[in-house]
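Write out structure tokens for TniQ domain-containing protein.
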Amino acid sequence: MGSHLGLRDSRGRWRGRFGVTLPPEDVARVAPILALASTQVEQMQLAAYDQLAFDLSGLPESHAIAATRAAAHAGWVWLAGSTFCPQCLAEGGAWRLSWRIPWNTVCLRHQVNLLGVCGTCGGVPGLGNQFHGSAPGRVAAAPDGRLCQHPLPGRSVCSADLSQQQTATVSPGRLRRAEIMAALTAGGRGRVAGVGRTSLQSLRAWQSAIGIAVSLGVVHTDGWGRTHRWANPPRDADLIDSLLQSVEPLITSSSPVEAADVLDGWLRNASVRTPHANTFNRTTQPSAALQPVIDEVLSRHGRAHTMIQRRLVSTDGAPIEQRAWGVDDIPQLVWPCALPEHLRHTTKPDQRILRAVVSMILVRVCTDACDWVEAGAALGFPADKSRNWTHYAFGANWGIKDDLLAASHALETKLATQANRPSFHHRSQIVGFGSGALKDAQSPRCLDQGGSAWCPCYP
């Protein structure tokens, strides 16, 4: 039949990417012979799901094996081989194109789990050699849709009855995920962290999340995918659903912030205390839909000056407009009420040092100070004290770095509302050791403590 349709050459070799895509000239030739419309022939190829369930645009014009594999791995698609539903095969022996999409792990018609290998020989149906070629095997056996055609030595085939293989009834959770995947692979829109996305963007987010989860040890994969981010999707439908289940809380979160909480939990469990961009982009493929979640996580971590710099630019990388307050609006020690309640009376670390650190944070926000020494100098602090105080306050032992950064951020919006501006340009001389050096520093009081001027508590 392949020779009659012109899909094999005189030497019996099949067209490259058989069943994946057909050149337009082949479609035009075989459609009349099969009494089908050209669109029907095209819909019989795996490429019918291109840009819906995966991206085949990276397939090279040549049929180079290495380049073809790279494109297939990047798109998370099987160019050869298939899962199957024994009950569907028992009803007629026809193999569904959707079974060749890794995301589909359930037969929704019979509500049973799909199988990925023959229970007799362990071979993957349709995967005839180590090169993952998609052409039928060259064996002397009459094709039968219900029988395993996996090649065996001596040009024979397994011939096990796949329609009699045992499979389990789908669980409610797996059925829910299968329905999501079926809608996405058919081209329906999805949601990633509460944001609507195209099917291709959504599936790439699932794929990227799986790469992160495997890298951080969120799910046990029996060795699959831990060594390379361009991992070919596993052939085990049960493992694929296990991967989907592990990342489902991340993808289905209601917002990027909620999804970032999930990702933060993964990082903590993996003992990753200071994630950075390479924590993600070197372990998985990029995903535009997942990037807001990663950005939210990164904004919560890193060295203090890095987190401050992130606040000084917008999401598109442009600098934020100049603020309506400056260095002269910042006292050497910010108001006590500017600190979180649990830090206002602490002695270890001393609350005066913490207030000085918040003041230095504000200086870095409104100036081009490149380090803490420059920020401290603008407030009249000696270089060694600027370095030591910030290093001490941001130390991991206290765990208050985020609190201090949040305090400075909350104060930013209020500084321009002071009644008498600028009022802190005459700085005190800072001398002495430890927190005692701040005894004569500018230290405005809160109105609730008898202060007569403005404070952040002022409405």
